[in-house]
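cron nightly-structures :: item 1 of 1
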Amino acid sequence: MAELAAVYAAGLLTYGALAALGRARRRQRQHRRPGRRIRLSADPAAAVAEQRLLARTVPGHLQAPTLRSALRDLADGIVSGGSRLPGIAALHITPDLLEVLLTTPAGAPPPPFTVAPGRQSMCWQLSLPGGLTIFKWVERLNAAS
């Protein structure tokens, strides 16, 4: 149990460091003058540590989907298709399926979303074969206790 807690703490610490680094770099990019580059660390050891941290992260296309990324993909697909976002009444989330319940019937959703069968075009669904990230964390926590 102590090993599991140590692994969890190390992962949490690494995630916190990556989040803080990402937030700082994003803030630097937002406040830079047009045509300028962001300032990087002058300390070579810090630069190497930052490169190692970033090299060990999983690329976005290999990560498990999050609710935010799924909804962002939906919005991007609707906007790129020239359609208007329909009214959303609710989201129904299960470990293997995300359903977007609409207020009015809408046309075909952008891929990879599909129209749920038998819902009269008022529900778009996204199959989550690997599940959402939040469900994986809950499963791990339940298995550890």
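cron nightly-structures :: done
The first strand starts at residue 88 and ends at 94.
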